[in-house]
Amino acid sequence: MKKLTYSLVTAAIVCALSACGNPSKAPESTQTKTEAPAVQPQSQNVLLAEFQGPYGGVPAFDKMDLSLIKPAFDEGMRLSLEEIDAITNNSEPATFDNTIAALERSGSALSRAFTYYGIWSSNKSSPEFRSIQKELAPTLSAYSSKITQNEKLFKRIETVYRSEAFKSLTPEQQRITWLRYNSLTRNGATLNEEAKKRYAAINQELATSHTQFASNVLADEENYVVYLTKEQLSGLPDSVVSAAAAAAEQRGKAGQYAITNSRSSMDPFLTYSTERELRKQVWENYYSRGNNGDQYDNSELIEKILTLRHERIQLLGYDNYAQWRLEDRMAKTPENAMDLMNKVWPAAIARVKEEVVDMQAVADKEGANITIEPWDYRFYAEKVRKEKYALDSDEVKQYLQLDKLRDAMFFVAGELFNFNFKPVPEGSVPVFHPDVKVWEVTDKTSGEHIGLWYLDPFARQGKRSGAWATTYRSHTTFDGKKTVLSSNNSNFVKGPEGQPTLISWDDAETYFHEFGHALHFLSANVAYPTSHSGVRDYTEFQSQLLERWLSTDEVINKYLVHYKTGEPIPQSLVEKIKKAATFNQGFKTTEYMASAMMDLLYHTTAPSKIDAESFEQQELTKLGMPSEVVMRHRSTHFGHIFSGEGYSSGYYGYMWAEVLTSDAAEAFAQAPGGFYDKDMADKLVKHLFSIRNAMDPAEAYRLFRGRDAQVEALMRDRGFPIK
């Protein structure tokens, strides 16, 4: 998944309006210099204090304490609002330096508090933290409203945006000025006082509801575990059995085997277990998260969230939430986003029907006397894969060692980005869990320090499901150079003590995907924090593109070696993998697109017409959703869109980014040097990775490709017919 978004609506606004670095000197600019707000004294609260130590300073993860959270946010908000007051009360006319650059410099202490908060929220949650999180949500929302609805602040930003001097700013300065102006106008800055009060109240209610939604999902992920005995392990490969045994032991159930309520545990169990009733139980546990009719049920919360969002956008004059949300995205309108979906959807569900026919034939041939159900799909798809392509997923898994794949990612980063990764001495950089390891990233040629890369790869209690990337500090230069602190986080099931962790091909692609986000952070070459604000239907592109390097010969031949013998993966098996590349694309595309289309339907339908218990099924039936497949994220655990607003009305963005990805991958495939072509790599870094959001993404892509992306490349990639 894309970069971590906290389950608070306010967090995104806070980061958009405040710096993510430390204040030091005033920036160089074409504008007249003015005094910046005074730097506050060093805080005694470690969550607010400037990062200390090597590598430009690092977070003090070893000193985190829950008791510090509320005092840190109280103080951080106070300091931030003081800085805002200094900007708005400046008697000098508004300029880029004394308004926009000053805003970029403000809020750094609070931003550091959010760094630690994000770790608790995503990597080491607990009932105690969730209680604090719930209490903080409305307070933080009220704080952000004081900024987004600050009329004096808006007037100063508007003055800079509409000034004659705006034309003489650098392109990046013009872009961040527009981003700030646009963000405030879209978040209620121009409303009358009564409407502003209601807008702020809605944000507080939403913040609380988003937090509760995420907490409910996490509770169901922690509370539903299937424990197996030896007699119930039939069909499971040794790697899955070993991981299940380790998971059970971690939960105080030594001698048993735990299938946890996470995708990385559920997926292989449904693929290999011959125990159909147990497959059904594991499937129901996973896909019923947030929908069990108990205190953690999210159905009513969905209706509440949608109602509040709709009321809020009506205050701004929009017809529906998706219209407001997509206005500043690449898609621009929900109609454009849905149009892309409709180009792919018919081919996807048609392919599902073909896949089900193949699976049903295998089941009938074996005398199973069943009709394929959702909990059978992965199991029989694997049998079809073996029959059609003689490809055994578990055989492939023996060559996919987590550490070797990490080395492969480092190799790709060296070839394309000229980066070198070197482990930092253990203990020299604080970490928040013993599983977390850290590498220093440098330029291979000059030796210049680029930043640090943190890796937190394994599942554990208190860690949210899925995979994601984030930064603890982003590259900026406007106020003294700040280097990058980036992080990748996954939920792989750790291998037994002394043995490597083996993962599936799909998980290996996800590993590369998230590393693509890290490379996007590390390769940044922008001056200002706001240039790191993402365009959601574009930011997945860079990470999806990096997945393509997993299947390059250079990676396969060097890094895919058998975990016992050390022998390279046989060429015959590689050929099978490549031949089966479009296998099961009906399932993969349909489960994703069902979630993406439902996201848009939820946010283009009047909430009064939505009954959360039935809306999902009704709309999927209208779309012709095959009964054998369910949404990748069913509504009650669809955290992308209901535990925050980062992906709300924007989950389609993965498909939008896939169009860019397929088109860009064809450019590499056609280059003289293929996927390691130096000229293409230089263009990739220059136009698509280093500029972040300092340029309109559509323009950036055209600079790379020479034209707009075309959907036909995506259809070819998935083996779908092109009309």
Automatic annotation (TrEMBL):
Cofactors: Zn(2+)
Cofactor info, note text: Binds 1 zinc ion.
Gene Ontology molecular function: carboxypeptidase activity; metal ion binding; metalloendopeptidase activity
GO biological process: proteolysis
Positions of the Oligopeptidase A N-terminal domain: 83-196
Example of a GO cellular component annotation carried by this entry: cytosol
Signal peptide extent: 1-21
Domain Peptidase M3A/M3B catalytic: 269-718
Annotated stretches, region: Disordered: 22-41
Catalytic activity: Hydrolysis of oligopeptides, with broad specificity. Gly or Ala commonly occur as P1 or P1' residues, but more distant residues are also important, as is shown by the fact that Z-Gly-Pro-Gly-|-Gly-Pro-Ala is cleaved, but not Z-(Gly)(5)
Key word Protease present: yes
Keywords: Hydrolase, Metal-binding, Metalloprotease, Protease, Signal, Zinc
Biased composition (Polar residues): 27-41
InterPro entries the UniProt entry points to: M3A_DCP (IPR034005), MetalloPept_cat_dom_sf (IPR024079), Neurolysin/TOP_dom2 (IPR024077), OpdA_N (IPR045666), Pept_M3A_M3B (IPR045090), Pept_M3A_M3B_dom (IPR001567)
EC number: 3.4.24.70
Family, per entry: Belongs to the peptidase M3 family.
PANTHER family: DIPEPTIDYL CARBOXYPEPTIDASE
The protein's name: oligopeptidase A
Origin species: Thalassotalea marina
